[in-house]
From TrEMBL:
The organism's place on the tree of life at top rank: Bacteria
Organism expressing this protein natively: Brevibacillus nitrificans
Single GO MF descriptor: ATP binding
UniProt xrefs under InterPro entries: AAA+_ATPase, ABC_transporter-like_ATP-bd, ABC_transporter-like_CS, ABC_transporter_ATP-binding, P-loop_NTPase
PROSITE patterns the UniProt entry points to: ABC_TRANSPORTER_1 (PS00211), ABC_TRANSPORTER_2 (PS50893)
Protein name per Swiss-Prot or TrEMBL: ABC transporter ATP-binding protein
Family: Belongs to the ABC transporter superfamily.
Keywords: ATP-binding, Nucleotide-binding, Transport
Signal sequence, start to end: none
Pfam families given in the database record: ABC_tran (PF00005)
Length: 328
């Protein structure tokens, strides 16, 4: 288990004051943060304002020292026993950082493996296993500069798994990837947790990705934890409104009036948009499902229904709602 307890991180920043003098100011990036990572589980770290996600990941992977609080990994302290902790953790970042473009895929993995003290036959076997796993065996001896974006990202995964970490941090792993490659990567991440029992922490600006992958989500704002729960519970706890969209061919004044009355009766509101094709799209938001009364109302006005669908609130709505409330 990886346990983060009451961790705080303060950066000291030098600021110029006039021509000759300068002063130090402090930036509190993470404040009193606690969470856990367990084998086989994927947790999401979502941020609102200058949240401190990257700082948190760097502290957990021993790249930064917390100002106070503790991080332990299978009982080892991330500061005092960082050598043990390093062997159990690794990070995969999105984008095209952390790879050497002039080297081949295999040479990259040899280099990163050697940083973990791996060498000889066991390193070669590990590299072959990973190249197979991420589908890069055929391109193993091609320089990375000739790889496509998707191939580079797959090599990033192999690099992050080179030391067979039990705890894996994924920092915006699908950043800039095309939809099919991002989908493949999400499938791979799921398997790393469910089949290989890895404990995974994911940060992503693509909130649907967090909703799809994560068992639990931690939401932080200015370095402080503001919510922690499963995506489903977070959505339910805020009691967000369900949206009902209906498309009709004409909208009479009488129907418009009755739609407004209906929305008001259900504690919500209605929005009306005239679409390009001379149809009307009505959106009703309220506390309860309005499908049945809406259909009865349209039948009473002899209005045909061209399209009807409901939109359940998502984790994205939760984040937007919290960001609004916290003045982001
Ligand atoms: N090296 C540093 N020196 C000073 N301040 C820093 C440093 N790194 C980060 N910060 C500040 O700490 C806060 C948290 O930054 P961090 O990069 O951890 O957030 P983040 O949630 O990863 O943000 P983003 O999603 O924008 O990448 C921000 O206010 C940032 O300006």
């Amino acid at each position: 288990m990886l346990i983060v307890e009451n961790v705080r991180k303060v950066y000291r920043v030098k600021e110029k004051k006039g021509w000759f003098s300068q002063k130090w100011t402090e930036v509190e990036a993470v404040s009193d943060l606690s969470f856990r990572m367990e084998p086989g589980k994927i947790i999401g770290l979502l941020g609102i304002n200058g949240a401190g996600k990257t700082t948190t990941i760097k502290m957990c992977s021993t790249l930064l020292t917390p100002t106070s609080g503790s991080i332990t990994v299978d009982g080892y302290d991330a500061v005092r026993e960082d050598r043990f902790v390093k062997s159990k953790v690794n990070m995969i970042a999105g984008g095209e950082r952390m790879l050497y473009w002039r080297l081949t895929g295999r040479e990259n993995l040899q280099y990163f493996g050697s940083l973990y003290g791996l060498r000889g036959q066991s390193l070669q076997t590990r590299i072959d296993t990973l190249l197979l796993q991420v589908g890069l065996m055929e391109a193993a001896d091609t320089p990375v500069e000739r790889y496509s974006k998707g191939m580079k990202q797959r090599l990033q995964i192999a690099r992050g798994l080179i030391n067979d970490p039990r705890y894996l941090f994924l920092d915006e792993p699908t950043l800039g990837l095309d939809a099919p490659i991002a989908r493949q990567l999400r499938k791979h991440v799921k398997e790393l947790a469910s089949e290989q029992g890895k404990a995974i922490l994911l940060t992503s600006h693509y909130i649907h990705e967090v909703e799809e992958l994560c068992d639990e989500v931690y939401i932080i704002d200015k370095g402080r934890l503001v919510a922690h729960d499963t995506p489903t519970n977070l959505i339910q706890s805020l009691n967000l409104e369900t949206a009902l969209h209906v498309t009709i061919p004409t909208l009479s004044d009488a129907l418009d009036h009755d739609l407004r009355q209906l929305a008001m009766r259900y504690g919500g509101q209605r929005q009306i948009a005239e679409t390009d094709e001379q149809t009307w799209e009505i959106t009703l938001r309220g506390d309860n499902d309005m499908t049945t009364p809406l259909l009865s109302l349209l039948a009473a006005h002899s209005s045909p229904v061209l399209q009807l669908h409901t939109e359940q609130p998502s984790l994205e709505d939760v984040i937007l709602h919290m960001a609004d409330r916290r003045g982001a």
